[in-house]
Fold this protein.
Amino acid sequence: MKERSLYADLAWLPVPPADFNARCAKLLTHADPSREIRSLAAYALDDNKLNRLAGAIASARSNRFSLASLTPFRLGVIGSGTLDFVIPALISSAARHGVALECVKGQYDQFLQEAVSATSTISTANCDAVLIALDYRSLPLDSPPADAEAGRRAVAAALDLISAIRAGIRSNARAVSIVQTFPAPPETLLGSFDRILPGSPRFALDALNQQLSASIPGSQDILLDVATLAETVGLAEWYSPSQWNMAKLPFSNTFLPLYAEHVARILAALRGKSRRCLVLDLDNTLWGGVVGDDGVEGIKIAQGDAVGEAYLAVQRLALALRARGIVLAVSSKNSDETARAPFQQHPEMLLRQDHFAVFQANWSDKASNIRAIAEELSIGLESLVFLDDNPMERGLVRQALPDVAVPELPEDPALFARTLAAGGYFEAVAISSEDLRRVSSYDDNARRVALRSAATDVDAYLALLDMQITFQPFDEIGRARITQLINKSNQFNLTSRRYTEAEVLAVASNPGCFALQVRLADRFGDNGMISVVICRPMSLEPGKERCWEIDTWLMSCRVLGRKVEQMVLAEVLRHARAAGIDYLLGRYRPSNRNGMVRDHYQKLGFTRRGERDGDTEWLLTTDTAVAEQPMTVCRAGFDVHAEPRRAAVAAELAGAQGCRD
Amino acid sequence: MTNEEIYQELTIIFRDVFCDDELQLEPELCAADVSGWDSLRHVRLILTVERKFNQRFPASKVAELKNVSELVALIRSSPCLDT
C-alpha cells in the first residue's frame, strides 16, 4: 500500500472505513444525525468523499433534521476562478470541527461587486464571515520590470482592491473577512533575481503578503495564510496549469481537502473550538523504548542519537505549545514511580514534571485516565488531544471518547512532531494574555487523579481487534527470542528466573517440563512473541502429588489489559489436565521491578497458600474453568506424545520428592 | 492492467464521483446517459481518474472523449507518472 502523504492525504486523520458510503446513505435513519456526521467527517476524506458527505448533510437539512450537536456558521465565499468544488469540501470539513456550515457562494469572479453592493447575494445573506478566495491572477499587479516606483504603485493598487472588498463586507454584509495571502507561482523569469527585482511576481507578492498581514492586527478580519500552505506542499504542486486551463481551478484539486481543513480550523477557532490540552503517552512517544523494561539509562532520548532526536523533537514541540498556553498532561501505562523516573533522573529530558498539570501513570485503561484528566482540569473532552504511538491505544480512546482528537502517527518517530503540528489542533486566530497565563493557572504540580470506578467498556473494544493468539512449545526457531524475553522482562515477570539459551534448550528437551511460547496478532499487525511460561512437575504434599509448579511466567507489558493472561492460563490448564496434573502452584517472587504482578495469581482465581522465603505461593486445581475471551486460538508444534510422557513423569514423581533445580 | 481491472477501478471512481453506488458502467455510456454529468462533474471525474491511475491527460485528449470506452482507451495508452 502506498504510504500516505502527510498534507495531501491529511495523514493525521484515520483512513475512512469500507462502509463510509453506506453510512452516508443511512444518515437520515439517525434521530440526531449530527453525531454521525461528525463521526464520518473525522476521517481523512478526499474531495469525492467530502462531496458525498456534504450531500448527505444537505439532505439532512432539507429534511428538517436538527443538527443539534453542531454549532451553526454561515460563510460567504467570493473569489476568483471556479469555487464550486470548494463549497462541499468546506461543509464536510467544518463538520469535522463541530461546525454546521452553510455556504453562500458569490457570483463567478464578481468578488468586488458582491462586496460593495448592498443588495448582492453575499450582502443580504446574513453571513457570519466571508472568505475572500482571491487568486493572484485577478490582482492588478503587472508592472514593468526594474521600475521600483511602478512596482510600489501596483502593490498598493492590489492592497486597495482587497481593502475595498473588506470594507464592503464589513459595512454591507456586516461580517468579518477571511483574507488569504498569495502563493507565488513557481515559474520565475530570472531565477533567484526575481526575489529582488521589482515587477516580478515573487517580489510583488512578497510585498503584498507582508502588507496584508500587517493590516490584520487591529482589524476584525482573519488571515488565512495560503502562501505558507502552498509552500509547505510545494508551489509546483499547488499550482496546476492544466487544471487552471481546463476549469479555472485556482489550485490543484489534490489539495482541496487540505485547503478546506485549514478554513474549517479558522471557523472552529472563531467559535472557540480550538483545543487546549495535550495528553501525552510516554514510552515510544516522548522517548524511545519502554522505561519499565529498559530502565532510565536504557531509554533513547540522547542528542546526537538518531532515534533520541526524534523524541526530543516531540518534547520540544510540547514545550513550545505550553509556552503558547496549551496545558500538558501524561497518560502512561506504567507504575507511577517508574514513569516519573526519567523526568527526575535523565539529564537529556527537556520535559520535566513541573511542565505537566496532571500526571496519570497506572495500569488502568487510558480512556478512564483521560476522562479523569479532563474532569480535573474542568475542561470538556473536546478540548483534548491525545498523542500515542500505539494504534491499539489510539483506537480505544477514539472509540470510548470520540470527542478527544487522536492523531494517527506514522511508523517512523522522526515524523511524530511534524504530524502533530500538521494536525493543527491548537490553531488560533488570536493569542491573548489569558492564553499565556492559562498554563500557570492550572498549577503544574503534575498531580495524580484518582479514577472513578466503571466507565470504559474495554471488552467491547477488545472484541473488535480480531486478536489471534498462538501457542507453541519451545522450539529451535523461537529459542533466541524466548531467551531474550526471559532475560529482559522485569515488570510482568512473576519469578524473574533467568535462563541461558542452553538452559532454555534443556527445558525444551525435558519431557517432564511444560513450556509455552505465546504470540499475539491483531488487526494492527503481529506483536510477535509476547509471553513465556515454564512449568515443572513436582509433588506438593501427600495427597497432592500431581502438580506443576509455574517456574516462569512473563509477559510483554505491551499487551496488558487484553486478557492474554486468562488465555495463557486456560492453555496451561488444558495441557495440565491432559498430562494428568491436578494442581498448579504459582509463585510470586517480589523484585524491585515487578510490583505490578503481586496480585496476578489472585486475579486469576488462585488461592493463596502461604509464604516461603519471601515468595508468595498460590494454588489452583486444574479442573478450574476459565471464561472465554474474544480472540481466536492457534496451536502449532505440539507433539501428540508429549502429554502422555508428561503424565508418565508425573506418575513417577507421585512417590518421590518434587524435583527442582 | 487488464480491461476488466480498468473497468473495475473506473466503476468505483464513477460511483464515488456521481455519489451513486448502483451505477453500472457500459462502454457506450456517455454524459447524456447519466443525470448530473455536467461539465463540473466531468472535471471531477477526469481529476479523480488521473489521481487513481497516476496519469495526466493533456487537455486535447480529454476534450475528444465521447464515452467510457474512449476513456478506457485513453487510460490504456497513457504512461504512468513517476511517484
Q: What stands out?
A: The first helix of chain B runs from residue 3 to 18. The domain at 3-77 of chain B is CATH 1.10.1200.10 (Non-ribosomal Peptide Synthetase Peptidyl Carrier Protein; Chain A). The helical segments of chain B are 3-18, 39-53, 59-64, 68-77.
